Amino acid sequence: MHLTKVRSAIPWGLAVIAAALVGMLWLQSAVRSIITAQAEESAARWVAQIEHAVPDLPALVDGAHVTDAQRAVVNAAMIGSQIFEVRFFDRAGREVFDSKGGASWQTGAVYDAAADVAQSGLPSASVEAGGPSNGTPTRYVEIYMPIFDGQGAVLGVAELNVDNSASAAAIGRELGKVSALILLLTFMVIAVPVAGFMRQRAQLRVREAEIRTLTDAAEDARKTLEASIEALPHGFVLYDRNDRLVLCNAQYRHFYPESAHAMRPGVSFETILRAGLAAGEYRDAVGREEDWLAERLIRHKEARGPVYQHLADGRRLQIIERKTQDGGRVGLRIDITDYIESRERAERAEQRLVDAIDALPAGFWLFDEQDRLVMFNEMYRKMYGTSSDLLEIGRTYEDIIRAGLAAGQYPDAAGREDAWLDEVLQNRTNKSYEMVYQLDDGRWVHSLNERTTDGGIVGFRIDITELKQNQLDLEKAATTNSLTGLLNRRGAEIAMQRLVDGLPDDDAEVAFLHIDLDRFKPINDAFGHKFGDMLLSHVGECLRDAAPEGAVIARVGGDEFLVAYGAHRTREDPAQVADSIRNALVRPMHLQGQHVRIGASVGVATWSLGQGDSVSIEDAMQNADIALNVSKTRGRNTVTVFEPAMREASVLTARIADV
């Protein structure tokens, strides 16, 4: 609106400016006319003054000889006047007099001016205004005065140069005032509106430039956005607040080729869906199209959470929709077919793994890097029935073991639970470890454990009860006398080492009782070896009944036996135990209808930890054997406690026998 007003004022303003310029030109012309008129008015006075000063002027011009007196007269006439120079030219245009320097006899522009004067036929003079050529008021006036002879013919020309500076300056000042007034009026009339116009015009141009810049930027942004949307690997779509299509990229149409023809700006979302339904584009909608459409429209309106689609070509899409600020909908279609197939393959592989693990004849479990239970099979649960209720995903290994210890599931840990747990946890710090232990139900378990690459631990629990029993049977066979069920010599050595290792302190000792049956050989010869075997078996039972609890009982020869047990240092105790055993063996025995009586000779020796540096266990057993020999020499069926002198006598007897 403002721009229209300014534009309508332009012709009027230009007219005012043009009028002002015309007025100024007219004023300058008038000033020049005034100056010229002033010069013409005073020309006669100046000429008369010259003619008065130089009475014989024609003769002077025609004579071509200027005397000093004549020059002085002319110069004197110029004093007090505005004339600052007088020059005379003859009819040929030659300068014959110059008040400033004398005749130069030169021709030039003045001649032409003199000719013009002569031809004009002026009766007295001609005036020309002179001065700078820049349009300022003239500062001097050139007066050309013809000089006639007596018959009226022009003899020459007199040029008078008159100083008009004062008049010109005064008139110039007036002219400046008038010009300034005109300019002021012009400024007041047009400059201010024009300035406003120019300012608004400049502002308008700035706004237009800004609008062009914003428009260009918006266009660039639109192109960039469209290019970016097209470059997306996912399908992109935008619907307005009325659920009509605004735009979509090529990938979106690629996902729905059967309904792509309906994807035009302005087409509603429901119309596009119905086009796809009609073409069978949605596999999960087959047979329930209307219900599927209603559900899809609801989810589309809510624009929350992902939506999954199974298309007719087998592809799986994940749909993510969000509401825009203006109430529209923006959505992405992501092809997750490979992900779904990979996940299904992984699930099938995991299920096969779980099935395989469950089918294992061994218990299996897996702990993560923080030692929390990740998975286990049913066999593992069955093996640990006592603590099976505690097997929960996420529980730590230590918690599970502690629960088993509290339930008494590990007999080997009885009485030393904390130490046993520390050993187990210490083993668990190794890359791999094995354990063999017995459970509270009597079964034996072989534990195999290996650390995984991610810091977890995988383990197998193998039930080795049968194998362990076979092993125990073999060990028992190797260390037990099959006839009596007692330990043999090898078993006795192993058992006695355990006995020694279990001594509580230096004040405790081990008693060794070496027993030899009396009259066994005659009975065996009389009744046969079978009867003899029965007799030896019965002796083994008698020894088990008569020996102290926890004693080591072994058959170390044909009819020789060994009893060893831990006792305190009382010399009477081993002798009393030995005599009690002798009395048990001397009682009559009833075997297969036969009544037989045998006796027993016993040798007793002791050993303590304090003697370990001077006397070995083997020495102590030999001492018991020496004492046994002494019992036999004393008449059999006696008990003899070893004395050091007996060893010396035994050594002497051996030397005599060698001789």
Short description:
This protein has about 650 residues and is an alpha+beta fold. Helix content is about 50%, strand content about 20%. Mean pLDDT is about 80; it is low at about 105-110, about 120-125 and about 130-135.
Helix content: 40-55%
**Can you summarize the main beta sheet?**
5 strands, antiparallel
Task: Please give the number of β-strands.
Answer: 22
Average of per-residue pLDDT values: 80
Question: How far is the N terminus from the C terminus?
Answer: 155 Å
**Poorly predicted runs:** 105-111, 120-125, 131-137
Instruction: Please state the overall shape, judged from the principal axes of the Cα atoms.
Output: elongated
Helices and strands, with pairings:
Layout lengths: L1 H52 L3 H7 L4 H11 L4 E8 L4 E4 L10 H12 L5 E5 L9 E9 L5 E10 L1 H67 L3 E5 L5 E4 L1 H6 L13 H10 L10 H14 L4 E4 L5 E8 L5 E7 L1 H23 L3 E5 L5 E4 L1 H6 L13 H10 L10 H11 L4 E7 L5 E8 L5 E7 L1 H15 L9 H13 L6 E11 L1 H8 L1 H18 L5 E4 L4 E9 L3 H15 L2 E3 L2 E3 L2 E10 L8 H17 L5 E3 L2 H15 L1
Parallel strand pairs: 21-22
Antiparallel strand pairs: 1-2, 1-5, 3-4, 4-5, 6-7, 6-10, 8-9, 9-10, 11-12, 11-15, 13-14, 14-15, 16-18, 16-21, 17-18, 19-20
